[in-house]
Write a structure and sequence with these properties.
The chain is mainly alpha-helical. It has a single domain, classed as Amino acid/polyamine transporter I. The protein is built from 23 helices and four strands. The longest helix is centred in the last third of the chain and has 45 residues. The protein starts with a helix and ends with a helix. It is a multi-pass membrane protein. Keywords: Amino-acid transport, Disulfide bond, Glycoprotein, Ion transport, Membrane, Metal-binding, Sodium, Sodium transport, Symport, Transmembrane, Transmembrane helix, Transport. Unusual broad substrate spectrum amino acid:sodium cotransporter that promotes absorption of the D isomers of essential amino acids. Neutral amino acids are the preferred substrates, especially methionine and phenylalanine.
Length: 630
């Protein structure tokens, strides 16, 4: 019998190519007997199978490329821009408790489930619904939500490009008030402490709003102006980079991930060290980690935690499923889900400490409370507070500014390429004869055209609108349907059986409880509460009118409406069958729900029929040979 330490070591040797990462199970799992009664080696059979598995479909160059691509996808602008702001809005440290709990019981289990779905079927967010064809519209709804998010996400990348080139100035342009500033502008380098400074704004604040965005106070009430030409060029550059990354599929994006996943940490740590050395940083960090216990009783805070978890991990968008679909069938996504969720949380906390150290310093300078430092939310936190501390670097501030905005851009590339690649994969899965390079080009051009709305003076209002209705509500509802379809309709026992066949791993009660009960019930309770307590949508002091809200509601209905629409399409295709038989057929997994490789399909059919030796143990089965078993 193998020693436990030997089992553990063998799982990590894949980094050196010294072990099979596909399964920690016993060697007789998946084996077949010949007429003589001898067992064929499962590992040898699988190696032969993997050579032909997912033939014709792209594959990652190595397990490391897949892991780093997932890290680059999850660790994006959401960690640097959105997480500190969401925590800032929801009481600082009090937000960390629901966020970590949501990550443990909703975010991580959903991430693992979507990895398993994509890898098992070797298909994107639509074709995986062979598992339950009645819910095929969930995949199309996710595509609409992903498209809505990626259009504004790349516009944020365009802002980082603008700041990147601005950082090459002799003096950082946001460090001093310019001809674009008002009489209330205060130079970033000023050491003047302003009592009752609520009417004053730093030069970095006014530079962002008045010079870069040229934002208008009347919002969308008077229509939309023409795009700002400098931001338009930056947007075009961003989409050109994405096209280059995506044009060769995972073969190119996997190599880029080495840089996009690792480089940001170097810059973020440098900023953290600098931020912690500024006066007042301690107060900001303490505001971040000190919990406001009454906040935990507000479901709004829990909704914000779920929304942030979804946005940060990219759960519910279909991109996780897409990435996993390019894996080998036996790849150990169980390990990857743990690594990625931990890395994402660590990065969010790292960014949170960094930004709140800066906010503490700004509060010290203006003689204000930390919670009163920033009056506007959203992107202003990343494009005001971060540039502010960069301007305070006494040594080569231009260099650090260039590095920082390059970091933001690389973070954006990692996430945006995953979201855009999800759309490309769905299209190419549905139309395999189409040229993938041409599809990539068309998607990028369409994304650029829609992105022009976000580089107008009203762009930030449009971003808030689309983020709320397109990136929040839609994903939230579709995630509930996704879990119900997989765990309740297809069945949690069937899904765990499929994981056992694919990974050689029994599924523990933690995963089962999260999938079958905690996630669907928890999400539905929070969703019902938020709908019942909904307030008028605002951006700063601007309140969105009926027309803007109507547009957002139509967008939500259109995406969610994909579910019943494709259900009726399925009924129409089966119109020759009796109605009840047609309905039952749609809720039953089709023959396409199986490994794509023919040999694996046969092995899977035998496994379902009970002809293969089942595994023993939960989550970490021991390697027991037949001799040891007897």
């Amino acid at each position: 019998m193998k020693a436990p330490l030997g089992n553990i070591a063998s799982k990590f040797m894949f980094w050196k190519g010294g072990a099979d990462i596909s399964s920690p199970c016993s060697s007789n799992y998946g084996s077949t007997k010949d007429k003589s009664g001898f067992h064929e080696s499962a590992s040898t059979a699988r190696l032969d199978v993997e050579k032909s598995a997912t033939a014709g479909r792209e594959q990652w160059g190595s397990p490391v490329e897949f892991l780093l691509s997932c890290v680059a996808m999850s660790v994006g602008l959401g960690n640097i821009w959105r997480f500190p702001f969401v925590a800032y809005e929801n009481g600082g440290g009090a937000f960390l408790i629901p966020y970590i709990l949501v990550l443990m019981f909703i975010g991580k289990p959903l991430y693992y489930m979507e990895l398993c779905l994509g890898q098992f079927a070797s298909a994107g967010a639509v074709k995986i619904w062979a598992i339950s064809p009645a819910f095929k519209g969930v995949g199309y709804g996710q595509m609409i939500a992903t498209w809505a998010v990626v259009t504004y996400y790349v516009s944020l990348m365009a802002l980082t490009v603008f700041y990147f080139f601005s950082s090459f100035s002799t003096v950082l342009p946001w460090a001093q008030c310019g001809n674009w500033s008002t009489e209330f502008c205060v130079d970033t380098m000023s050491n003047v402490s302003l009592a009752n400074g609520s009417d004053y704004k730093t030069s970095s604040d006014e530079f962002f709003n008045r010079e870069v965005l040229k934002i208008v106070p009347y919002g969308l009430d008077h229509g939309i102006d023409i795009p700002e030409w400098r931001l338009t060029l930056c947007l075009l550059f961003s989409w050109m980079v994405l096209f280059i990354v995506l044009v060769k599929g995972v073969a190119s994006s996997g190599k880029v991930a080495y840089f996009t996943a690792l480089f940001p940490y170097v810059v973020l740590i440098i900023l953290l060290i600098r931020g912690l050395t500024l006066p007042g940083a301690y107060d900001g960090v303490m505001f971040f980690i000190r919990p406001d216990w009454p906040k935990l009783l507000q479901l709004d805070v829990w909704y914000a935690a779920v929304s942030q978890s979804f946005f940060s991990l990219s759960v519910g968008f279909g991109s996780i499923t897409m990435f996993a679909s390019y894996n080998d069938f036996r790849h150990n996504v169980y390990r990857d889900a743990t690594i990625i969720s931990f890395t994402d949380t660590f990065t969010s906390l790292l960014a949170g400490v960094t930004i709140f150290a800066i906010l503490g310093h700004l509060a010290h300078q203006f003689d204000m409370d930390v919670k009163d430092v920033i009056k506007e939310g959203g992107t202003s936190l990343a494009f005001i507070s971060y540039p502010d501390v960069l301007a305070r670097f006494t040594f080569a501030p231009q260099f650090f500014a260039v590095m920082f905005f390059l970091m933001l851009f690389t973070l954006g590339v990692g996430s945006a390429s995953a979201l855009t690649g999800c759309i490309i994969t769905i299209v190419c899965d549905q139309f395999p004869s189409w040229n993938k390079k041409l599809v990539t080009f068309v998607v990028c051009v369409a994304g650029f055209m829609l992105g022009l709305f976000y580089v107008t003076p009203q762009g930030q209002y449009i971003l808030t609108l689309i983020d709320y209705y397109g990136g929040g509500f839609i994903i939230f509802i579709l995630a509930v349907l996704e879990v119900i379809a997989v765990q309740w309709v297809y069945g949690i026992k069937n899904f765990c059986r499929d994981i056992e066949f694919m990974l050689g791993r029994k599924t523990g009660w933690y995963w089962k409880m999260c999938w079958a009960f905690i996630i669907p019930v928890g999400l539905m309770v929070i969703l019902i509460y938020i709908i019942s307590k909904s307030k008028p949508l605002t951006h700063g002091s601007y309140v969105f009118g009926p027309g803007a809200n109507a547009f957002g509601i139509v967008l939500t209905i259109f995406a969610i409406g994909m579910v019943p629409a494709f259900f009726f399409v399925g009924l129409y295709k089966n119109k020759k069958l009796p109605f009840l038989d047609s309905v039952c057929l749609l809720f039953r997994a089709s023959e396409d729900w199986a490994p794509m490789d023919p040999d694996l399909k046969k092995e899977y059919a035998a496994f379902k029929a009970g002809d293969l030796t089942p595994l023993e143990g939960i989550d970490n089965p021991t390697n027991i040979t037949d001799d040891e078993r007897h």
